[in-house]
Amino acid sequence: MKDILNDIIVNKRLEVAQHKQAVPLQTMLGMASDRLDRAPLSMRAALESSAGIIAEFKRKSPSKGWLFPKADAAVVVPSYEEGGAAACSILTDHNFFGGSLGDLQKARRISTLPLLRKDFIIDPYQLFQARVMGADAVLLIAAALTVEECRQLAETAHSLQLEVLLEVHSAEELDHLNDCIDMLGVNNRNLGTFHTDVQNSFRLAEKLREHAEKETKAPLLVSESGLSDAETIIRLREGGFRGFLMGEAFMKTGNPGEALTRLIQQLS
């Protein structure tokens, strides 16, 4: 069976190397020193004090193809904010998801919501990119990193005042947790096959609660992928989840903000 995650990571290493060559780190930081003065927003706090929807800006996926090819972050992200999103996830991978760092930058200019840079982060350079372009939080994927790589990246993110959402798909990946993880996401989609099963969050809920009881500051629990209806979100809340990352359910409608508004109304 084709391993899509492996293909993505191979491509990502080439992409990051190209970015470093085109814009060295010191050059990037020098060009954007004013942006580094902005105090990032807390995505975790926003999820704790709201319905907890992380609305995603996502043009396509490897499994579903194009969802909304001409989507404009300057239009979609404000509609998410108006519709009641707690935060926005901006996919910045181009080859597999049709996104860009420009989408993140555009969203930051127009939105006051916490913004998550969602990408396959494998190098500290990408964390500096995220901070410069206006992200408040970053996604780290356990399946793409060793335990030590995850720790180093999470520590670097915190040094940049970025919150960290760690994504796991199985109980075995919980060994990637460390003191710098603010939010723990269960991906209902297998990143090797891209098969989606929402029951994965429910299966892991008890193990996540057991782990959380051992921690001084337990990460906030987030369910990711395959979510589409209010009933499932209500059940996940009962299971201990406080964040719900949703993209395809909104983007495929052609009017993401309106789709989010309807969902929020059903949750009220």
UniProtKB/TrEMBL annotation:
EC numbers: 4.1.1.48
PROSITE patterns, per database record: IGPS (PS00614)
Keyword Transport assigned: no
The keyword Amino-acid biosynthesis belongs to this UniProt entry's keyword annotation: yes
Pathway, per record: Amino-acid biosynthesis; L-tryptophan biosynthesis; L-tryptophan from chorismate: step 4/5
Keywords: Amino-acid biosynthesis, Aromatic amino acid biosynthesis, Decarboxylase, Lyase, Tryptophan biosynthesis
UniProt catalytic activity: 1-(2-carboxyphenylamino)-1-deoxy-D-ribulose 5-phosphate + H(+) = (1S,2R)-1-C-(indol-3-yl)glycerol 3-phosphate + CO2 + H2O
Residues of the Indole-3-glycerol phosphate synthase domain: 5-262
Example of a GO biological process term: L-tryptophan biosynthetic process
GO MF annotation terms: indole-3-glycerol-phosphate synthase activity; phosphoribosylanthranilate isomerase activity
Enzyme class: lyase
Protein known as: indole-3-glycerol-phosphate synthase
Taxon lineage: Bacteria, Pseudomonadati, Bacteroidota, Bacteroidia, Bacteroidales
